[in-house]
Amino acid sequence: MSETTAPASASRTVIAESATPRGRRARIALRGLQILLALFYAIASALPKLIAHPSAAEGFDQLGWGSAGMYTIGALELAGAIALLIPVLQSVAATALSALMVGAFVVTITAFDGENAATPLILIVPLALIAWARRSSNADLLRLVRRRA
Fold first, then answer.
1. Which of 35, 58, 93, 108 is the 20 to 30 A CA-CA neighbour of 133?
2. pTM above 0.85, yes or no
3. Is the backbone of residue 17 left (phi > 0), alpha (psi -120 to 50) or beta?
4. Torsion region of 78: left, alpha or beta (phi above 0 gives left; psi -120 to 50 gives alpha)
5. Which of 122, 45, 126, 119 is closest to 93 using CA atoms?
6. How buried is residue 50: exposed, middle or buried, by Cβ count under 10 Å (0-12/13-18/19+)?
7. For the segment 13-68, what is each residue's pLDDT rounded down to a tens digit?
């Protein structure tokens, strides 16, 4: 396809994808944020659930979800943490973890009287930024899925 027939969307420059020094810094900062969030979700959030740490088990018992709910949420968080680091999955992972945080917020408000309710809301902000900035990876993922189908 020649430059004159390129779609209009190709002319728009997204900072996190551009080749300018500013774009390079943005890519590095965004990747750093993804790594920090992946570490948080894997170590601080998923690991206590997956090893059935008493603090995690107590909360899930209070909810009536038991160990099955605890292991399920832990596995989803760990999968999201890993997927945040895989380029083709990063936007989908950030979106899925955001949805998980909406659920965590609702549960925190309804079952735990709002104790630590700000945490999931705070985490949604950088996750939404990643989902938006890495949205071009969704097209790559869709191409891979269609090719396999």
1. 108
2. no
3. alpha
4. alpha
5. 126
6. middle
7. 555 566 788 888 999 999 999 999 999 999 999 999 999 999 999 999 999 999 99
